[in-house]
Amino acid sequence: MDRASQADIAGLLEALQQGDSAAFDTLFPLVYEELRGLAHRQRRRWQGDDTLDTTALVHEAYLKLVDQSRASFESRAHFLATAAKAIRHILMNYARERRAQKRGGDQPRLSLEELGERLQGEVVLSDDNADLLAALDSALRELEQVNERQSRIVECRFFGGMTIEETAAALGISTASVSRGWAVAQVRLHQAVQRELQP
Amino acid sequence: MDTAREDRIERLFEEASALPPEQRAAFLDRACGSDADLRAEMEGLVAHADKAHRFVDRVAGPAMARAMGEAMGDSRGDAEPGADPFVGQQVAHFRILEKLGGGGMGRVYKALDLRLDRTVVLKFLPPHLGADEEATQRFIYEAKAASGLDHPHICVIYEIRETDQGRLFIAMAHYEGETLKPKIARGPLQVREALDYVAQIAEGLQRAHASGIVHRDIKPANVIVTVRGKVKILDFGLAKMAGSDLTREGTAIGTVAYMSPEQTHGNGVDARTDIWSLGVVLYEMLTGKRPFSSESDQTLIHGIRHDAPKPFRDLRPDAPANVAALVSRCLEKTPERRYHDAGELLAAVRAVQAGGTAVRRPAWRLRVPPNGSVAVVLGLLLLVAGTWLAGKRPRQAEVQETARLTAAAPRVDPDAFALYLKASRVWPPRTDSEAIASLEQAIEKDSTFALAYATVARRYAIFGRDRATAERTVAKALALDPSPEAYNARGLFLEFKDFDWSAAEAAFRRAIELSPHNSRAHHELGQLLMRVGRCDEAAAAEQHAVLQDPRSRQFQGGLGEIYLNCRRYDDAVREFETTLHLGRDARDSSNTYRDLGDVYFYERQYAEALAMYEKAGSVPGWARTPLGSRQEALQQIDKLKSALARDDRDIGVRWDLARLYTSLGERDSAITWLERAYERRDGMLVYLRVMPHFDPLRDDLRFQALLKKVGLTS
Fold first, then answer.
1. Rounded Cα–Cα distance for residues B139 and B161 (Å)
2. Scanning every residue of chain B, which has its alpha carbon at the shortest distance from the alpha carbon of A126?
3. How many residue pairs bridge chain A and chain B with CB atoms within 8 Å of each other?
4. In degrees to the nearest 10, what's the CA dihedral of B129, B132, B138, B142?
5. How many Å apart are CA B286 and CA B541, to the nearest integer?
């Protein structure tokens, strides 16, 4: 990324911080593409594991995309929140495609208990994984209806691996609100996933 | 969305969660009043909090990371054995042959050791575990300690290494066979067979317990039975590694079903925890069921703490009474009432096998743990509890140091070892009075702790104000153990305190001779060669250190410093930028930004230099003098002088004064301060020959005389 576009992104983040929501629409695809590119490259390196450290990924994208001399804690938080959203999109697209491919999109036949057991087992099947993510996606949409702020917190904390402080800065709320919201949101997500996966 | 109601829910949830579980219902009754809907919702939220957190941490989080990997994979990303993209690749001197599985503890592969031409198992730890330096060190410490156990029933660990990307992996023996897990899944075992396995496990544990090592995660999946019926216990030390990542918010987590009551409290554990877990395994082998089970971890933990096990004889009526007695003695809630250690359990099992009764010693008998080494483990646990700021990845040098230490660890005083570990975390070394203090305490506690002596000697040599103490400590370190670390300390002492360049070089070379892969020795040699102006050799030596330990900021930054002082500024910038990527936060990177500031300063790119110094968090007074502002430099000169008036022993202050005067063009004052630094044997003078900052002074005869004094004539 050359300096000019770095500066553009820093400018977009500043605009976002000022509450210019149109800036998000310009920023999002840039971040999305960058994350995909980085993740692809990271996959090609030897990892010894099939998991990707999404937090590291997001931070790498940040260093790459944003002109560091113009970076502030707040603009960084906004970047991370955008990246978190991008990661959510990447994952949900993946889960949808995978399920459509394998099963013509039918419902999973496993309960959360069973699925959880299998996902913590010795060998994890991609389909199980995709089933869980799809359930998570629905759960998050449900949460969005009940408490929009909590769903934003989940995006930041869960998908973006952001700290309480970073989340607070990105959402413009206090750290105490983030902690409280995150605590409740986790239980609601779990409950909704459980409902979703009821056989 | 009903904002007011939602806020209320969040607050009530917070308050209820802070209460002991038995007080929550009453609290919610009071708080919700007549709002039955709210009461019901709160009830559901509060009851499932633990389970939900666990779901997010253990199921959803890993699922996300996995899916991200798969979504980005070039292949379909199937996790089926054989379809793995890494099979066929080479890591270190291992060729990956096939995937054996991958669970919570990362991927497991069968591999070929190309050097020794034998089949091994490689276990890769998940990347997030390596992120906690403390946990990693503990893990290596324990795994190494276990690998030294050398017992026919303990899985042999060959080595612990890092991949080029810094992922930790363990190479261990490969056995043909299966774990107890699938065996049990096929149905209860014969009593004779089960007792045979328990006896073999107990034999292995006896050896471990005698060395003060507790397994902590005995479960069927951690016990392999080879095709010849021989038992091998796996994964010593791994349990705590996994736990450390998950013990947020005070919850101890492992394989809950096999946890002892004391483990569920998150307390320190000893050998008797393994006895409990082995009791659960025996119960399960004989009945096909676990003594405690429940749909949620929370209720399971409650059962483990308070309930009697499901009656064993009901599930296995044909088992002899003495076997039932064996099981129930293992499953006593209070550790004091269990078999004291694996040796005692083994004797009991042997008695049953021989047709006698299970030996039952008086349950009230208390004994001191064997040889006090359990205290090492407990000491480490405490240390971890106290300081888990973490966030840093371990440096290879420390990994090596830890590995080296473990050979001697059982002989080292546990408190002293804990202090040593604490000191090794302090970074950057320039602010290390804290590290020195910990190390001083460590050697005070254990006056034979060679590595602590060598480490503190190294720090005295560079930062110590007192030559005599440094000299004495170096001598003591060498006398205790003429190790590469001790020679490194000696080299630094000769260099920084005596300016005896050839003797110092010889000491570093001796360290390398003793241990060719000692990255620190290569680093110190590289720095010395740079300071005497042998640039190419210096870069080669430091590159060697970086190659050994690619994640070390100190070595990577050291390479930058070599190029900086050798005036290869483009190369310096490149290396420092690499260093920045190794750091995690501003504090990590402050030194590197200061170095980058220097590069740009010498290149006369003063605006860039200023920006870098600002990022470093402190702008030196000379940064603005070329821009026409002398004021900052003059102010700093006043400040440094009054600091010297308060305490004239500070190292580096005179050196900084010389730098400030140089930038002001006041050559005489600059050289005077350098001479004063020499009178104090200020270690910074090792840079006198090479530092570009003093280029304006180099034609001055006083400067040249000073160079001669520190043995650095051009």
1. 12
2. B78
3. 189
4. 10
5. 61
Residue B145 banded pLDDT, cuts 50, 70, 90? low
Residue B159 three-state SS = strand
Q: Which tens digits make up the pLDDT trace of B200-255? A: 999 999 888 887 778 888 999 889 998 888 899 987 755 444 433 333 222 333 46
CB contact under 8 A, A191 and B48: yes
Would you call B265 helix, strand, or coil by DSSP? Answer: coil
CA distance B169 to B157: 11
Using only C-alpha atoms, what is the Rg of chain A?
A: 18
- Residue among B595, B104, B452, B381 at smallest CA distance from A116: B104
Q: In angstroms, what is the C-alpha Rg of chain B?
A: 31
**Phi and psi (nearest 5°) for B253?**
-130, 140
Secondary structure letter of residue B296 according to DSSP: S
DSSP one-letter code for B156: P
Which ipTM was obtained for this model? 0.86
- The conformation of residue B188, written as its DSSP 8-state character, comes to P
Close Cβ partners of A13 (under 8 Å, ≥ 6 residues apart)? A23, A27, A66, A75, A78, A79
A121 contacts on B by Cβ (under 8 Å): 103
Count of CA atoms in the C-beta half-sphere (13 A) of B343? 9
Distance (Å, whole) CA B489 – CA B651: 19
| Contact between chains at A147 and B1 (C-beta distance less than 8 A) | yes
> In terms of CA atoms, which chain A residue is nearest residue B249?
A183
Collect all residues of chain B within an 8 Å Cβ-Cβ radius of residue A148: 1
Q: Which two tokens stand for residue B437?
A: 């203090």
Within 66-105 of B, beta carbons closer than 8 Å to A belong to 66-74, 76-81, 84, 86, 89, 91, 101-104
Exposure of B473 in the CB half-sphere (CA atoms within 13 A): 31
Contact B68 A187 (CB under 8 A): no
> What is the structure's pLDDT at A7?
64
